[in-house]
Design goal:
Blueprint (H helix, E strand, L loop, with lengths): L1 H8 L1 H11 L2 H5 L1 E14 L2 E14 L3 E5 L6 H8 L7 E6 L16 E4 L11 H11 L4 H14 L14 H13 L5 E5 L7 H17 L3 E6 L10 E6 L2 E6 L1 H8 L4 H26 L4 H7 L14 H5 L7 H14 L4 H17 L1 H21 L7 E7 H4 L7 H8 L5 E5 L3 H9 L5 E5 L3 H9 L6 H6 L3 E4 L4 H25 L25 H31 L2 H7 L4 H30 L8 H25 L3 H18 L11 H6 L6 H13 L6 H27 L2
Parallel strand pairs: 3-7, 3-8, 5-6, 6-7, 10-11, 10-12
Antiparallel strand pairs: 1-2, 1-4, 8-9, 12-13
The structure holds adenosine-5'-triphosphate (ATP).
Length: about 725
């Protein structure tokens, strides 16, 4: 007894002695065994230690009350036990194995976890929520319904069809508890299950927990702020500042510390701890060479941990049992990615995704039409020739009463007024001023003897400078808009060529003389009047689906992550691969309809003719959509908040779009950019799409199959990185 007293008054020494003397039988009978656990949050340059050499032993079939003030590390410890967080140092054994080891059902069916936050899908009904977890645990419908009936009445919940968002905070927590109890797990981890519960129901919950621990040997770890209710536990652990102050049966703690309540025992231990801290704190402040972290550790006679190496005498004792963390984490991350997906978990995740979609039909319809609206706007606004371009006209020949003929009028009649619209001016200076003020895109000037000069040049072959000058239209252009000035010049040049032919025919000269010595034969691919739209539309179709998939996937996963929903599903045993596969399958149908609608609009309404197999074009767009989803998943693995997702997604949209030759041909880029553009996820896929759409190429052509290969490779790359990152960021 005196040994025990010693060990309790000196907790670390006590824990150490306990560890060293533990018999093998006892260890085997432990449902949860945590030894020398160290856990840091953050990175080495800014880390925060949440657990400091914590040791915890929970025998099978026991109720363990984990007590301590807010922020002492209870939730962190539970998340380590359940396999969601990896320790920086130390070892956790749950139901005989390391959590997350192959074939182990922790995380999975063997553990029921009720997190502190509600972590429920707010638009689901109570029944849908229970069915989701039931399907994840591979329970059949009959079992789910019978458990649902029991839990609804036991936890005093309203109708099964009531939506979670319509429940009070306390009722939502009880639904959360119901989800944890649903599959009758071997191990129950409940993070403050009795908060917001009335005393009668609290009593009922405790009776049930005692009942299942006695009849089914369920092991229960429960954290609570109501210290006195933990008296019903078989064992309690008292934590403070990431350390375990004491761990024993409640009655023994009361006896040892000669107190009447656990509250007082805890107070006593805290005071003792505080007294131990105080002198060392002073010392350390005087020495002025230690951080706050090291101070608190010093006070327990434990030398400061090196955050990176985590070395302490205590951990050195068990050095052989502990495994170096970074290698271990990398190995475990790789193993996480290689777990074979299970059909029932994919099914459960799919039902969950479909239920979410069912709850927001309006948003679903909106999703169908986003690509249609985008491609329509693109086809309407981009790539068409500018029309009704306003130009000023100073026709000196007309002002002077056509002294040498009216050929200038004939030429002006040839210019399509739909494209260039002339406004006549009687004064050249006024016309120029109007251009300078931005009312017109330029001035076209005819000399007073234009008609005579044209005849002299064409019929009498006069080529003196005065004739050449007078027989030309002089254009003074505002060239600030390249596209507008290009169209103006092009229209005037083409019309002038037609005009010259007319003049030649009129004077019985072969009009072919006016043709330039270039003959554009029937094009190998495409049509003679090919528009910019035909070049850009294939790339846009790919880009629209790609970027839409990025945004939606990243947002969905980050919201689920932030609200603890993803973590809860992971603890129920779902892997990232399963979640993602379910997401892709459900999104398949949405994307399928999006792609069909987009192609119908582009092809039928906006005449972007798809010369090659439509199925091949659709398959490529679809594959790129999956690539976008994988990239979205990677973004959600990196980000914690929606705003971060928006920043990363938007920040990558333009660089990818601009450098992949979607908007402007890659041939126009500087050599270095052209080389770099090979490494965007869009460049080769867009090129393959153009080949299918404009050249009618199929998979036998290198550029087409290479596009498919590149899209698949980026998809696998993003997906693998996301899965590893999710596993590593535990
Ligand atoms: N993701 C995180 N990143 C950084 N620090 C964290 C993170 N989660 C918890 N912490 C810190 O770790 C310490 C322990 O937190 P934890 O949530 O485990 O405490 P707790 O005992 O469960 O508190 P409560 O009873 O209020 O839930 C706290 O100081 C907290 O600020």
């Amino acid at each position: 007894m005196s040994d025990e007293l010693n060990s309790l008054s000196n907790p670390i020494a006590g824990n150490q002695a306990l560890l060293e003397n533990q018999s093998e039988n006892e260890t085997r009978d432990l449902a949860v065994c945590v030894e020398g656990a160290w856990k840091n949050y953050g990175y080495w340059w800014k880390s925060m230690t949440a657990l400091r050499d914590v040791t915890l032993h929970v025998p099978t079939g026991n109720i363990y009350g984990l007590l301590g003030p807010s922020g002492c590390g209870k939730t962190t410890l539970l998340r380590c036990i359940v396999g969601r967080l990896q320790l920086n140092r130390g070892e956790v054994t749950v139901l005989g194995q390391r959590p997350g080891s192959r074939g182990h059902e922790v995380p999975g069916r063997a553990v029921g976890f009720m997190p502190q936050e509600t972590a429920l899908y707010k638009d689901f009904s109570i029944s849908e929520m229970l069915h989701y977890f039931g399907h994840l645990h591979d329970m059949n419908r009959k079992d789910i319904l019978s458990r649902e009936k029991f839990l609804l009445s036991f936890l005093d919940l309203p109708s099964r069809s009531k939506k979670i968002c319509q429940l009070s905070g306390g009722q939502q927590r009880r639904v959360s508890l119901a989800c944890a109890l649903l599959q009758q797990p071997q191990l129950l981890l409940l993070d403050e299950p009795t908060v917001g519960v009335d005393p009668l129901l609290r009593e009922k919950i405790w009776s049930h927990l005692i009942h299942i621990s006695q009849t089914s040997r369920t092991t229960i770890i429960i954290t609570t702020h109501y210290i006195e209710e933990a008296r019903k536990a078989n064992r309690v652990g008292l934590m403070r500042s990431g350390r375990m102050l004491a761990e024993d049966e409640p009655s023994r703690l009361l006896t040892i510390y000669n107190q009447t309540s656990l509250e007082n025992v805890f107070l006593h231990l805290c005071l003792e701890d505080q007294n131990r801290l105080q002198p060392n704190l002073m010392n350390s402040t005087n020495e002025n060479d230690q951080t706050n972290t090291t101070v608190s550790i010093n006070n327990q006679n434990i030398p400061p941990p090196d955050v990176v190496n985590g070395e302490t005498p205590h951990s050195q004792i068990r050095r052989k049992e502990l495994v170096k963390n970074p290698v271990l984490r990398a190995k475990r991350a790789a193993v996480d990615c290689c777990i074979c997906p299970k059909a029932h978990k994919i099914y459960a995740s799919m039902v969950k995704d479909l239920t979410m979609i069912k709850r927001s039909i309006g948003f679903l319809i909106f999703q169908f039409f986003i690509p249609v609206v985008q491609i329509s706007l693109f086809c309407l606004c981009i790539g068409r020739d500018p029309q009704h371009v306003p130009m000023a006209l100073f026709n000196s020949e007309a002002i002077n009463g056509f002294p040498t003929g009216n050929l200038s009028l004939e030429l002006l009649n040839k210019i399509n007024s739909e494209q260039v619209h002339f406004t006549p001016f009687n004064d050249f200076t006024n016309a120029m001023n109007a251009v300078k003020e931005g009312h017109y895109w330029g001035v076209a000037v005819f000399r007073y003897n234009f008609s005579q000069a044209i005849i002299n040049k064409l019929i009498f072959a006069k080529t003196d400078p005065a004739t050449l000058n007078a027989s030309s239209i002089h254009l003074y252009l505002d060239m600030t808009n390249q596209q507008v000035s290009f169209v103006m010049q092009n229209v005037i040049l083409t019309s002038t060529q037609l005009f010259l032919k007319d003049v030649l025919s009129h004077h019985k000269v072969d009009p072919a003389l006016a043709d330039p010595p270039v003959i554009v034969e029937i094009p190998v691919y495409g049509a003679k009047g090919q528009k910019f739209l035909n070049f850009a539309a294939p790339g846009m179709m790919i880009s629209i689906i790609f970027f839409l998939a990025i945004g939606l996937t990243a947002l969905i996963f980050v919201v689920e992550k932030k609200e603890g929903l993803l973590e809860r599903s992971w603890i129920a045993g779902v892997t990232t691969v399963e979640v993602m596969l379910a997401h892709i399958i459900v999104k398949f149908f949405i994307q399928f309809i999006q792609i069909i609608l987009m192609i119908i609009f582009a092809d039928v309404i906006f005449q972007v003719k798809i010369e090659g197999p439509v199925i091949l074009a659709m398959a490529l767009i679809f594959l790129q959509g999956i690539c976008g989803m994988s990239y979205g998943l990677l973004i959600s693995a990196m980000c914690e908040q929606e705003v971060e997702v928006m920043e990363v997604a938007l920040g990558s949209v333009f660089p990818i779009l601009l450098s992949s030759g979607v908007i402007w041909p890659a041939e126009g880029m500087p050599p270095i950019m052209r080389f770099l553009s090979n490494f965007t996820p869009l460049t080769h896929v867009v090129e393959a799409m153009r080949c299918i759409v404009s050249r009618a190429w199929t998979l036998v052509y290198f550029k087409v199959w290479f596009g498919f290969v590149i899209s698949g490779a980026w998809t696998c790359g993003f997906f693998t990185l996301a899965a590893i990152l999710f596993a590593l960021r535990k």
